[in-house]
Amino acid sequence: MKKHILLMPLDMHLHLRDGVMLENIAPLTAYSFSGAVIMPNLISPITTKEDLVAYKERIVAAAPNDYFEPYMTLFYQNYDKNFLVDVAEEITAIKLYPAGITTNSDDGVSSFDIKEMRPTLEAMSQLGIPLCIHGETDGFVMDREAEFMPIYELLAKNFPDLKIIMEHITTKAAVDMLDKYDNLYATITVHHLLLTLDDVVGGMMQPHLFCKPIAKRPEDLDALLSIALEAHPKVMFGSDSAPHPCNKKESCGCAAGVFTAPIALQLLCEIFEQFDKLDNLQTFVSDNAQGIYGICPEFKEVVLEKRPFVVPDAYSNVVPMYAGETLSWAIESVD
Amino acid sequence: MKKHILLMPLDMHLHLRDGVMLENIAPLTAYSFSGAVIMPNLISPITTKEDLVAYKERIVAAAPNDYFEPYMTLFYQNYDKNFLVDVAEEITAIKLYPAGITTNSDDGVSSFDIKEMRPTLEAMSQLGIPLCIHGETDGFVMDREAEFMPIYELLAKNFPDLKIIMEHITTKAAVDMLDKYDNLYATITVHHLLLTLDDVVGGMMQPHLFCKPIAKRPEDLDALLSIALEAHPKVMFGSDSAPHPCNKKESCGCAAGVFTAPIALQLLCEIFEQFDKLDNLQTFVSDNAQGIYGICPEFKEVVLEKRPFVVPDAYSNVVPMYAGETLSWAIESVD
User: Fold this and answer.
1) Residue B253: what pLDDT?
2) Are B205 and A140 inside 8 Å of each other by CB?
3) Is the pLDDT of residue B250 over 80?
């Protein structure tokens, strides 16, 4: 049976939530990934060292049986340099949300005023703290990411020593932006390598495929696939796996987020094999991230096997992407 | 209190379904409309005179207390001329669905072969039977209507004496097509005068605003508003009100259709008043349709009043658009 080995897989964009949800889902990522960048948009966003350290402890406690490194992030605000110096050791990045743009982002940035942001972003540049950005405007849903490109450009130009990560990119516009500035990088989810808007609302409406940014047009999917499959050196895997209890998905007013954490590696094998690019998957799912972030995860070997794997209907009360469907790769062992 | 009177409102595109659903919802339209063009896409589409007559009888029986004319339609197939001559008296139009494009359309047209369609369409031209079309391809969801325009053109050119109605148009592309051919007409729903894709998936995902064709871009909404508000003489109101039981809307895999029948006139008053075009509403909601179809509905006077109207949470087991929200116009009386 065909096997494929991945070493130290990294999920560079992950939502673990808190409380019971955290306890239920953290072990799923900890099992098959060496580490993950943990998003700070809890109901009270993570903005203090105390909250950050306590949250990290809860994550580690939720997944006691696996070696797993939670790479912590702060919720972007205009922070004092002394605070950043103090917290730098504890964080891997700072995550910026435009205000109100997605789940729990109301306390985000409401205007991109370079003058106001300069002290924080210069301090981050000096301290080598990357800036992760949810890059959407409040415009028309299909245009939000493309409309955000001038803000990426503004930040990339003004802070050339700041590593800026365009998170969960979904458009050809973002792909085209990637090589325009040395300090721009990107994460791509697995669902955005599979879906267009057609899959979300083209047939029946599919709440479990609804996320922000929403899946875009076929030409956008093609552009994302092209850089992921070649493992473009500025691109990393970040699942943006975002669990919601199923009653918040299957109702009037379904929350945004696709839950992929426990099936992401299997799906990635399927996609990369389909395009005969399995050899590039290691780079996409770990090596690029190690280089970009300068992180050295401890050894973990994930052996995937090409055999049918039926996605569970739910993991506790969270419905995963492709629930009940059969994937062509399964996780055989983790060491 | 401000009042607005509408005479003989007509809904030129309506789904009444069958059985208990029909019994529950037919009275809602029969109360405030003089007549409606009834779509034939039942689970077994209406393709025989017997089925058509029997369905009409069930509709009339479901709404015994109101004067209401169900303008019946056949499901398009390549029909024999003798059959069309025989059935002509019983029908107002024939409705064409591309195969598989929407609810109960699997038996629709799978290729637009003019040679094959010619006998039917020439007979319809001679008999004065309009052709109503659900104009979507099976392409990307945001492009399906625009991609269908060449088929409208092909039919309009080849059958200049056939009245062709572009049903529930949603795009600037269709608006721009309207005046290119004398024999092209259009219906517009009330929800497509209110929504863009933003309302469906731009915030939370809204199953009760999900329909086919899906609501499009802001510039499409503007184009639709421009011809509706001026009551362009080739444009008619057709609600495309499409009830589904709420368990088929609020679930994984939500069915397409917005239920507006009992709130359509109130919403239209709100929209037309907002743009200071209330004087044009009568033409949009009745007069144009009378002229285009050559129909003479019996007298009905609907008095609307400007006062708050809270949309019910459900009509039997069907959740309407804007359930629980407050509209600014209410139906005061119907005579």
Assistant:
1) 74
2) no
3) no
